[in-house]
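Exam revision sheet. Question 4 asks you to relate a sequence to its structure. Input first:
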Amino acid sequence: MIELADIRAAAVRLQGQVLNTPCVESRTISQIVGAQVFLKFENLQFTASFKERGACNKLAQLNDEERALGVIAMSAGNHAQGVAYHAQRLGLRAVIVMPRFTPGVKVERTRSFGAEIVLHGDTLDEARNHALKLAVEQRLTFVHPYDDEAIVAGQGTVGIEMLEAVPQLDTLVVAVGGGGLIAGIAVAAKALKPDIEVIGVQTLRFPSMFNAIKHQSLPQGSSTIADGIAVGTPGRVTQEIVEKLVDDIVLVDEGDIEQAIVMLLEIEKTLVEGAGAAPLAALLKDPGRFRGRKVGLVLSGGNIDPLLLAAIIERGMVRAGRLARIRVSARDVPGSLARITAIVSEAGANIDEVHHQRAFTVLAAQNVEVELVIQTRGREHIRDVLAALHQGGFQAQEQ
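Answer key, structure tokens:
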């Protein structure tokens, strides 16, 4: 098992190679959840993820022969970019095996760092097996995304930095996929401050470490917006550390994560991916557990597809009542639609969409159904708009 000395040695290797990212309080989020919340902005790394730390620490320790032959990694995301970037910086050959379904933007971003990209298999397991085969055939050093002590030690530097920046932290909340980040942080934090609580967060759809540690058998899903922690099997090295040092693992669902992404974007003006938002999702889901504590959250990455982000923002607006769909019934006579839109406008709402329905309705033939999507200030404003429509003689309800 790695020790604090290994993580301190990693910190020396990483000096000047990765950012010592800010760890600062979010006063607004603190007020919302009733705890003093500090955010560690790992999404500000050059490749927008903490994965650089472990990759750099691993590559920096290769011997001359390994450096001459090069490295290989399997990843569809942040690990690929971290390995490719630091291999390029150190002048090493890097081969990255990615599943065929990997979005083109991730493939091209990884290729931009000089890596040789091999697209193979329809699943991560198939890509991993092919990477291991190529490693043997071409005598390349395989750089595992999490199940490697050098990787874990590199990720653990996050924990040292957090406690140096905010020594009074009494709880750390960290997203868990394969376990590399939380294992490294737990080793560092428990050595520096034995009474600190370290809590892991997984999604309900991928509870692999939760199942392993708590001896459960919750089913595993097929997709999640937190794809960075969608790991089917935890690491052997990491599971051993997590069992010994991590105090608890909690589960969050997709809606919790979506809410956290939107909140960080609105309040902190910072963009995080699903995995990076998982720690805040845990606080929002169960604020009572953390009330009154000094909590450090790791915003582990910021690589998210723009179209997915757009969908998450829109869904967040619906949940907050800032975007609403209402249905209005009216007499099918000239001027009815104009009156409806005028009332909505006078009530201070903005109309996003209008759907005028005559045929597909159970109303009387001389009536019409108008469906509006409106922008509002919140739930109370929706009620005001409906009241104005009722006062204007229309039947209206929120859908």
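Marking note for examiners. The mean pLDDT is 93.
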